[in-house]
Amino acid sequence: MSDTELTSSDFTEAAEPFRLFAAWLDDATKSEPNDPNGVALATVDADGMPDVRMVLLKGFDEGGFVFYTNFESAKGQEILGSMKAAMCFHWKSLRRQVRIRGPVEIVSDAEADAYYATRPRGSRIGAWASKQSRPLESRFALEKAVAEYTARHAIGEIPRPKHWSGFRIVPQTIEFWHDRPFRLHDRVVFSRDAKGGWDKTRLYP
Ligand SMILES: Cc1cc2nc3c(=O)[nH]c(=O)nc-3n(C[C@H](O)[C@H](O)[C@H](O)COP(=O)(O)O)c2cc1C
Predict the structure, then answer these.
(1) Assign residue 125 a region: left if phi > 0, alpha if psi is -120 to 50, beta otherwise?
(2) Which residues are annotated as a binding site for substrate?
(3) Scanning 5, 67, 110, 181, which has its CA 20 to 30 A from the CA of 94?
(4) Pairing between strand 173-178 and 64-70?
(5) What spacing in Å lies between the alpha carbon of 201 and ligand 1's midpoint?
(6) Is the CB of 56 under 6 A from ligand 1?
(7) Is 73 in the pocket of ligand 1 (CB under 6 A)?
(8) DSSP symbols for 121-169
(9) What are the Pyridoxamine 5'-phosphate oxidase N-terminal domain coordinates in residue numbering (predicted)?
């Protein structure tokens, strides 16, 4: 049986995490009412104080899990300070959770440019107009900034702001969890071994 055919009860047989993750995300795309790629992103600040918020997963492969943001935002600064992060997906309708932890890399300029170019024009303007996570005096101030950048980029391509790019969490561990009766859930954690392969361990729920 291939990993993509693994059902909720036999996922613990998977030999590696990426095809299993792809299958679960695919299931979530069919079952969730919106944002199946929405994921909680955890960081820590310079004092070790945790922080968490949602982002959208925009790509993944064996190299890691990618999302995009403003590098001057709270999360951007926290990640640039520690170069570590964690993610937690919870697909309610499937009763499944996936947790990912690891060091963080910055995606290449070419990769960020390619993704930025796929975004709607309004979102590209928004990346310029929003000083994400900093105090905003009024809604009007944001709308004024949007109008200014819209006028500035009335014609031609809208370049990607230097402070807007992607981070890639390079997983050290990926844990899959599925609800089972009486809270006797299935948990399997894949951990990177010294040779870059994966060790698989079942955990008590
Ligand atoms: C479902 C959902 C998806 C989101 N996706 C992103 C995203 O991909 N990138 C982003 O910068 N913010 C995203 N946000 C907004 C963040 O949760 C957060 O409010 C913002 O990035 C500021 O976070 P920070 O102050 O911790 O940096 C999303 C919010 C929700 C609810």
Answers:
(1) alpha
(2) 58, 115, 119, 123, 183-185
(3) 67
(4) unpaired
(5) 32
(6) yes
(7) yes
(8) HHHHHHHHH--TTS--S-HHHHHHHHHHHHHHTSSS--PPPTTEEEEEE
(9) 25-150
Q: What is the tens place of the pLDDT at every residue in 108-151? A: 999 999 999 999 999 999 999 999 999 999 999 999 999 999 99
Q: Token digits for 117? A: 């170019």
Token duo for residue 82: 């520690």
Is position 19 annotated as part of the catalytic site? no
Show the domains of the chain with their CATH numbers.
Answer: 8-203 (2.30.110.10)
Residue 123 tokens, joined: 């979102």
CB neighbour class for 102 (10 Å; exposed up to 12, middle 13-18, buried from 19): buried
Q: Is the CB of 69 under 6 A from ligand 1?
A: yes
Q: Is any ligand 1 atom within 6 A of the Cβ of residue 164?
A: no
The C-alpha atoms of residue 180 and residue 188 are separated, in whole angstroms, by 13
**Whose C-alpha lies nearest to ligand 1, atom 17?**
54
- If you measure from the C-alpha of residue 54 to the centroid of ligand 1, how many angstroms do you get, rounded to a whole number? 5
Q: Could you read off the pLDDT of 156-203 as tens digits, one per residue? A: 999 999 999 999 999 999 999 999 999 999 999 999 999 989 999 999
Task: Output the pTM of the full model.
Answer: 0.95
